Amino acid sequence: MIKKKFDGKTLLVLGSNVGAVDIISYAKANGAHTIAADYYPPEKSAAKRIADEHVLISTADLEALGALIEEKHVDGVLSGISEFNLLKAMELSEKYDLPFYCTREQWHKIERKNEFRALCEEYKVPCPRTYYTGGEIPEDIWETFSYPAVLKPVDASTSAGVFICHSEEEMRIHEQESISKSESGKIIVEEFVAGDEFTAHYTIADGRVSLACVDNRYPVAVHEGTVTTIPVARVYPCLYIDEYIKQVNPAMLNLCKGLGVKDAILFIQGMYDEETNSFHVFEAGLRSAGEAPYRFISRINGVNAMQVLVDHALSVDSDFASEQEDPFMKGKCCGVVSFVARGGKVGSITGLEEAVRAVPSVVEYESRYPVGSTTPDGDTLRQLMIRFVMICDSRDRMAEDIAYLNEHITVLDENGSNMVIKMLPERLYGTK
User: Fold this and answer.
1) Mean pLDDT, all residues of the chain
2) pTM of the model
């Protein structure tokens, strides 16, 4: 029998979110015993259905999870893209002396917006001007702000507590709400920069840093007014990837190296202003972003960054081939295209399975809110209802396939009204 690299090792995976199935599949294929844990029953958790074992333990119940770690002689704890679950995995790893891909200090340097801003300034990564960081805004600095300005919690995710404010009055209205979304009770007020949104992912494997991908983020607003937008699509490669590689990438490679992590995934978000040909990077995460682009990168370039994190969790040196990374996607056009939900109760979803079968470019899809469930009525990533992972030969092909999905899939609320916002195919040829 051929020995596999994880033989004799046990991996505990927290949560059923995006990434959990990929982690478990890879670990099992390479000989690990896998355990999935969260409060979902197996019928609501694809991760639990494929794991060797599953337990009904909330990922917040560290005492019960700790007992499980000791009982099952767990060698590593990991989660998918969930920030909450990754922090719990880190906490358990610290307590039970298990490997985790980053330290708490490294995590905060990237995930906390004020600390990441300081890193950008240190490594000369272009970023917006910062007006203030801390708790409640002191009276004597209000007049130093230029409007519009962006108000954010320093450590919240899913766009919670983020407001674009056009006056001191708007800032005062939203200040306490933004603070309430921060675990540390701190906010950041920064310069508002105009332009087109993008996200870039980096892979760090055995200390080697490589640029994995850069996307165009196509935003939509569920509500009117000064609300944060939601990505109805992310399309790769970015239309201005050459400028990104020229202007931003060298500094970001140095920042990643300077962080001192051996194995990790790091993403950044920012804006590109075509009129001034300038970039502004405003936040980051030491994890995969929610669109999990490794899902199509692995099919195109033959490398999967999520596997690097599993290798680290099970104390195996990664054989990740950094030289195979190609942010130009070998000439393909890839995307994570979504239906964005308006708030309400889901009355019907028709044509979904049939349309997916008819569009070969859809390599994966997920439907987060089944019929009978209630979608939130907010302006965060929780509005993403159905997501399609697509690999196309060209942008033209992607436009045609998006049009087909739009036409053949209908999502209605309990009153029979359309309850989703869809990507307009013609937007693919620009960035607006």
Assistant:
1) 94
2) 0.89
